[in-house]
């Protein structure tokens, strides 16, 4: 394991993953993680690839799930079937009378003082239907204590979510920026100065493609995902044009 391939803030997670893999490799155990971010999944895959006799599967419940559990197993078990690791629930409520948003569902779950990593993706459809992916071993707790979203009473119905696809929805806006530098883009999104953005980045509040980023001069590309603490998640969707003065017109979507 070469730590120099990872950022310093990732060392603790990398060491933990390496321990998991060694347990599987030497003790022939099966390791099921909690839900991982796309960057954490990438780290797990990179480290597993260093071992010929260990493989990893990722399970998020939904099609194209963003957050997924890793199941690390000895290679000789790769063809075996394992118990369900992700359970799906439909959040039932009076959706004709009440509007519930993604942030409200997540806020009510985290208000139960649970580990965020026990909850996977939350899918809110245009019809008002809401689905949640949960770690299987945590299901009984959720059924017992997750009874409200805000002040609104809810009930949970266990459903098969494998046929449901996780699609990102964006509120699109047009921005005119002087360059594609990360600090310039973030300054436009935050409506802040570049010096304020620089300090915000130093505090570890900016993620680029799900990875903590402190290089303010990074040249952003279309498709990059920028997460700004307390501001939300954004994706660079398209470069529209260049103005006569050389400024760049880009379309950036904020995840809703």
Give an account of the 3D structure.
By secondary structure, the chain is an alpha+beta fold. It is built from six helices and 15 strands. The chain has helices at 11-27, 38-48, 102-110, 139-145, 182-190, 194-202, and strands spanning 31-36, 54-59, 68-74, 86-92, 119-124, 130-135, 148-149, 152-153, 155-159, 170-177, 206-208, 211-212, 225-228, 232-242, 248-255. β5 (119-124) and β6 form a beta hairpin. The longest helix is centred in the N-terminal third of the chain and has 17 residues, at 11-27. The mean pLDDT is 92.
- In the sheet with the most strands, the strands line up as 10-15-14-13-11-12
> What is the N-to-C succession of helices and strands?
HEHEEEHEEHEEEEHHEEEEE
Give me the CATH architecture of the largest domain, please. Roll
Total strands: the figure is 15
Domain RNA-binding S4: 180-242
Organism: Turicibacter bilis
InterPro entries: Nucleotide-bd_a/b_plait_sf, RqcP2_RBD, S4_RNA-bd, S4_RNA-bd_sf
Keywords: RNA-binding
Would you summarize the structure shown here?
The chain is built from six helices and 15 strands. It is an alpha+beta fold and 256 residues long. It is globular.
Write the layout of secondary structure elements.
Elements: H1 11-27, E1 31-36, H2 38-48, E2 54-59, E3 68-74, E4 86-92, H3 102-110, E5 119-124, E6 130-135, H4 139-145, E7 148-149, E8 152-153, E9 155-159, E10 170-177, H5 182-190, H6 194-202, E11 206-208, E12 211-212, E13 225-228, E14 232-242, E15 248-255
